[in-house]
Amino acid sequence: MSILTNQIYSIPINQLLNEVAGRRFYVNRKEAMHYCSPASGGWGVVRVACMIPEVEVVFVIPIGCGRHGAIASFANETVDKLNFFLVDEVGIVIGEHLEGLESALSILVEEKKPKGLLICSTCMDDLLGTDYKSLERELEDKLGVIIRHGKMNPILSETKKAPELMIQQNIYEFLNEPTQQDDGINIIGSFVSVEKNSELEVLLLEAGVTEVRHIASCESFETYQKLASSSANILVNSLGIVATTYLEKTKKQKKILAYQGFTLDEIDKGYQLIEEHCQRKLNTQTLREQYIKTLEENKIYQGKTVAIGATVNARAFELAKFLSELGFEVRYIISKSVSDIDKPCVRWLEEHAPKAVVLPNLEPSIGMAEDIIDSVDYCFGLDAAWLFKTRYLVDLSFNKLLYGYTGGIELMKQISQCQVFEGNIVEEIYKANFVV
Amino acid sequence: MKGFLRKLAPFSPDYSGVNAVFHELGGLVIINGADGCIGNVTGYDEPRFFSQNTLIVSSGLREINAIIGDEESLMQKINDLGLKQNINFVILLGTPTSAVIASDHKGISKLVTESLEIPVHAIGTTGMETYEIGVEKGLLKLAESFVQPLEVKTGGVNIIGCTPLDYWGPNQVNEMILALETEQVKVNSCWTMREGICGIRKTLAADINLVVSTAGIKAAKYLEERYGIPYVVGVPIGKQGTKKIADQIKQVCDMDELVERSTDKRDEIDTLIIGDHVWANSFRNYLEFKNKKAQIVVGSFFMMAVEYLRDDDCSFESEDDFLNKVALLKPKKIIGDPMYKKLLKESWAIQFVEIPHLAVSSRLHWDHEITYVGNNIEIV
Question: Which of residues 358-387 of A touch B (CB under 8 A)?
Fold first, then answer.
């Protein structure tokens, strides 16, 4: 039995920018409830917090917070650095929890001898204004380890200090002042690095970059510290925007906004910015030609309909543009927001994919649908494949970073080699362990 | 140290417990909090999310709403949902954030009930207690507000306290019902799996209630006081256990002599069973039917019912408390959720029998199909 109206709120692409301008370009309606299915979300704060090697993470939480992140972390990898300090109503209101926390941290430091502690608080401490900064200073002296404070506070979602942005900064706050900067470059904003011997790495090394670094590749606190020596950061995903600004300010590392993209324009633009930083021409010609050739060969999808989800490791509107160029008819885009860098793509889609409509990723009327919303030939992202009946599914998981010309070629290969999806989409969603 | 988890994930919170009670009943569940709160429920505590149509939404509480105490917008959001007339109810639940700003959910419920002409029930969750507290509150709300007077009594038993958080598995509830039916006990209603709202409404047609989880005891007591329906506490496990329960149901006999067990007490503990207290007690009975001399202790990280405790039974307040108590008990075998294995020292060489408890390990083991109720026990 479906209990609510079957009208699903959506925004035609040509009205999108006007409609969301009044809500700071967030697609979800301010006046609407949020529908958070297991198919929504991403890595979540807990899993990202655990990326710093040899740093113990302590979430100071009521029992109702952190369970999803903990289970997702346990499901994905061997996490032995995740700790929870549970608070109750009275304790947190009178600030008593900080006393208990101090004892807990002492035990942890004594037993596990970490190089640092990342303490993450939640919405409650935010509202009560708990002073973690003083605690940080006091306990650093007492315990003799670096202590930093992060937040898992979704009440600040849709702000400039949204938790998914701030945690990306927190994971670089353990970096010391570098004694000397080298010609290394960090990749920021993605959960995984580019693969070894990937296009980006080879091009950068050829251009004189000494090392391409990513936090996920750091096996020890010592190698993690090398991130501070890099002279620049390539921002591949806007999730890392706050982090790169922080690193620019504190470590004087230049910010290169070379976002991941699949269209020729976007890839070219990214490499131009990197070239400007390196003050050298990158040897992209052959790759670019290969990409253009593959692109031409793959313009074979005329009339094939597409839905793009919000759980793809890509910029949804940029991906929509790329797919339209391949001939796809983009019908649906599920999205949380339209960032500044996406606006040109939206304007392009207004003209070239006028039938496309945008669904807010947390739209409650999605949960009220009496049946599947529509059928499409291809879905990109598990959330799209759950909402729309599809013949082909391209996952585009957060666990792999497709970048540059070869990233685009790889995606085209995935599309062309895609088998008819006969799997169980619910199982796939659970395997992905998304956290809202 | 109490409240410090180094190996375990936080357990299911109270609002997941309430949702588990109402999930199949054709209503709308609203969690008044930021979106992370609902993410626990939909993704990690509710395995029926994709198979049942009950809608669960988050109010999307944001800092500005919390700081200025904006409850108008929550009411507006509920009104704007465009609820259809065939909705049975709305359940409004609190979270840590709404608790700390003392949101007036009762007031909101009253106002929205008036404007929508749909019953809106506020259930006092805070996200700071564990699931069984929420299940208990949800079941009590069902008993107080959803049970309807009936003119005809058709007999049978109501099973009180089935939620996936305790009894997940493809056939768990079916096994329980089948076991009772084998003993000629007719099941009138099962709170709250496998039944829609109609099952709850016909509750008063039954002669007796069977409470199968600790969280169900309060509702059963309420139904006894309010409607004179007696109750039995226990889970049908194994043929003899089921027969004993069936006998109690038929005769409403005394609980005390459920199992004949040896009065010789040995220092050596054979088995420690960890789980919901009512289930764990029943599983102990099952094992004792097989071996009267077995020394079995029940323990739980969750609420335990004092009246059903034996002397050695223990409540675990923390990971450290668990370790200390296990070190003292030195059981040869532990039966419980696989997550607890992480707490044990390797040197102890304790045999561990895994029975997933969804409120503990969530999705990590919910596909681990195992039958731990009824007549077809697959373990031990």
Answer: 362, 364, 367-368
